[in-house]
Amino acid sequence: MTLQKPNTPPAPFDYRPPVEPWLTTLHADGDILVLSKQSGLLCVEGKPENHRDCLEERARARYPQARLVHRLDRETSGIVVMAMNPKAQRHLGLQFERRKIRKAYIARVSGYVNGSAGSIDLPLTTDWPNRPKQMVDRQKGRTALTEWEVIAREANATRLRLFPLTGRSHQLRVHLLSIGHPILGDSFYADGEALAAADRLQLHAETITLHHPADGHIVTFVDNCPF
User: Fold this and answer.
1) pTM: predicted TM-score of the whole model, two decimal places
2) CA end-to-end span of the chain, whole Å?
3) Choosing from 31, 53, 73, 215, which is the catalytic residue?
4) Which of 101, 80, 99, 94 has the alpha carbon at shortest distance from 33?
5) C-alpha to C-alpha distance for 151 and 160, rounded to whole angstroms
6) Does 73 qualify as catalytic in the annotation?
7) Considering Cα of 203, then 134, then 163, then 22, what sign does the dihedral take?
8) Which of 6, 72, 127, 152 has the fewest CB neighbours in a 10 Å radius?
């Protein structure tokens, strides 16, 4: 069984990235650079000429040696880690590949989420006619696992802390949609009241925990949720 919304390709977006602040550095040393990405800013440049402004380009203007090791969706805000040298890039890349890095997100979702905590184990694949959208596919999808906990309730929404144990594209957005609680303001996967409830995607990468490439010590970085 495949869970998905009717095929409705996302409309082209008018790319006007935020410019203030231009770049927010949370931490920098000889091996890692930790940045706070704003909602609406691409992590890497897109194909259109007017999509060249991105977090990677801004970071390299200030830190020429910075190298990308992971990404956030354009609409998602929060922590992005970059490497400051090739050795650190390999070290961090292996941590992501081996799922040694722990991330936590904050999301506001539509409706009342029953229970206080749980997990979503639904395989995902690309919705090719509507790419870059993703969808649940129990036969051909790749394993995707998300843990969640309720941290606050509102009249028509629930605030969650999300722990993605895998790193599939749009994983959190599709997983929440699949259980009937789309993330508020999600222009890809929400509609009606859920889409109109916020002027941006209510998803924020709040914390990241990793082994520092210099000495292997576990470090955690925090970027407070802006909504």
Assistant:
1) 0.93
2) 35
3) 73
4) 80
5) 5
6) yes
7) negative
8) 6
